[in-house]
Amino acid sequence: MDSEALATFLMVHRQGGVSAAATALSRTQSAISRRLALLEEELGAVLFERVGRGLRLSQAGEALLPHAEKVAAALGDAVAAVQAAKSDAAGTVHIAAVGTLASSGLAAVLARLRTSLPGLDIRLQTATSAEVSEKVRASDIAVGLRYYEDPSPDLLCKVVHHEQLVVACAPSHPLAGKRLKSLVRLSKERWLAFPQPPRRTEPHAEAIFSQFLVRGVEQVDWSAVDSLTAQKRLVEAGFGLAFLQQSGIAEEVARGSLALIHVADLDVRVPVACVVRRSAFLSRATHALLAELERGEF
């Protein structure tokens, strides 16, 4: 077994099939199939099962996956360490964040970092909390920002911020700017919320609906909207209410395009955790990014 075989295995898993993996690796399908067959022959186990037109990991493949990821991550660390030693350039930092955290506050943090490290290339992508952890674990990115800490032993997590959630509404809403005793008063309203990914949970959405459950409201009328910007625009237009992070709508509230409904029995603060892979090589730029994030000013 060698690193190339494990890299092929990982790519087939991530792309969901041999054809897509071959395209990603700029190889022929026959070369990928042959490399995978040799690895399975060496291990004496089938690593994938066919599902429709795609492939999914077998039980043996599931067992191999974390070890293959660690090998790939270690090789990536080795290359990154050598490149860092060869150059004084700031380099590139890859960061993934839950979409609702990619606000003007985070943009300000990244702008400060780029000012302190001229030439730094920052690559930001958004994902769910679970996907952020997966990307860090697979070494696709160096730093992740997600809701709540991840207990995985492969990851190091630190809570760096708490997001205050508030009830946002259109300025024309009858309750705009009003103070209510309980959230129950809003249980008959139409709500906008992020969709729940299949077989996964998104803590931001869970925190929202749990507020109604603890008050004895088992169902609310809601629509799934997977974009923070879309949620804000729809709320502005009067299509519903939404729980949104206070920092993320400060500009809209200040200019009057969004308003708040103040609820006396509502105080939801969702912890935001910074995630890195345990024992990963962290460049000078990555350390600087972590220091900025740990200030919690976003």
From TrEMBL:
The organism's place on the tree of life at top rank: Bacteria
Record's keyword annotation contains Membrane:
no
List each copy of the HTH lysR-type domain by range: 1-58
* InterPro entries, A to Z: LysR_HTH_N, LysR_subst-bd, WH-like_DNA-bd_sf, WH_DNA-bd_sf
Q: Which UniProt keywords apply?
A: DNA-binding, Transcription, Transcription regulation
The Gene Ontology terms for molecular function here are: DNA-binding transcription factor activity; transcription cis-regulatory region binding
Q: Which Pfam families match?
A: HTH_1, LysR_substrate
Any idea what this protein is called? Answer: LysR family transcriptional regulator
Which species does this protein come from?
Answer: Variovorax gossypii
Q: What is the lineage of its organism?
A: Bacteria, Pseudomonadati, Pseudomonadota, Betaproteobacteria, Burkholderiales
